[in-house]
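Before the break, one more example. Copy the sequence into your notebook; we will annotate it together after we see the structure.
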Amino acid sequence: MTPAARVQAAIEILDNVIDGARGNGAPADRIIANWAKSNRYAGSKDRRAVRELVYSAIRACGPIPKTGRVAMLRLAEMDETIAALFDGSQYGPHAIGRNEKPAQGGVAPDWLVERLAASGVDAAAQEALLGRAPLDVRVNALKADRGGLELPVAGEHLAPPQALRFEQGTQVEQWPEYREGKVEVQDLGSQYACLAAEVKPGETVIDLCAGAGGKTLALAAAMENRGTLVASDTDRSRLSRLAPRAERAGAGMIETVLLDAGREMDALGQYRRAADCVFVDAPCSGIGTLRRKPEAKWRLDSRSLDRYAGIQDKLLDIAAELVRPGGRIIFVTCSLLDEEGANRFEAFLERAPGWQADTRKLGAGKPRGKGLRLTPSHDGTDGFFIARAALPC
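Here is what the structure looks like once it is written out:
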């Protein structure tokens, strides 16, 4: 492909990304993958270049643009080399018209920028959300130790005891150590969240929103594969991915429980007042992960945030039914918005008699409300809110 043809391909992909964002359709990574499958003539360098153009254009636009072309014009406004490729050549984009205007720039749509600012996220912290995330892994303590594990690429040792960092694009999934379950891809912020739980061997722990089980596996390693660890979720498809991952990791202690939304306690009733720890990695807007999924900023509105807040309140209440006296709840969201973090946690403490905030130092994050907030700008992690609540004996 010529450089101009790559720009035109990116424009066409962006049209689909924009349609997907408006209609809750396929995410950008899937759209790009489908394009690659349908255009076998594009070599690996072409695919990488087109992907980079698409994500760069998404990051360059604040509000959702009208078309992929105006999104790319915004990127061309910032990079003269791209502007020069609007040359009308075969397979390339036609020349920029005198009256054509690029899409509006910015971190996110104006309403979301205002919400972030109201949550104490300053301009520098917002700007950091537009960066590229590195690739972090957790060495699986059930099979290896960071200090003695030799990997094809030497990673940077991070503060958590089993955390390593590599450059974005490192093909960890191709390593024998990954296939053998010795390493798991996991953002540094997620590793801090699991450390906050302070789970111990022999405890009864419930991962209430386990999804595909990334944090469940970290909890299993911390528990040394001893005790009761329940991974529950309402999403059958995501939960089904945990079993092969657990087998590869050697985490044989994990029990999976599929939940029926609205009837969660029907499936978890046997654990009522029995859990030492309930880990609530609650569904949220994902604003803290914009480095990885930049188009997420186009998929949100205030109604979505209200819906997430309601789900988070409900999950905290369910968790409170499961914890025994002397136990704890860990509340986690990958959001920087107070309405999905500090406000939800404080509202829980107000309506749940006996529960107390139990903030612990993690060696990362800044206090926010009665919990901690991790950010790309301060901690080099995705954006997270992490809080602990304890129920005294």
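DSSP finds 16 helices and 13 strands in the chain. The first strand starts at residue 135 and ends at 139. Try to locate both features in your own notes.
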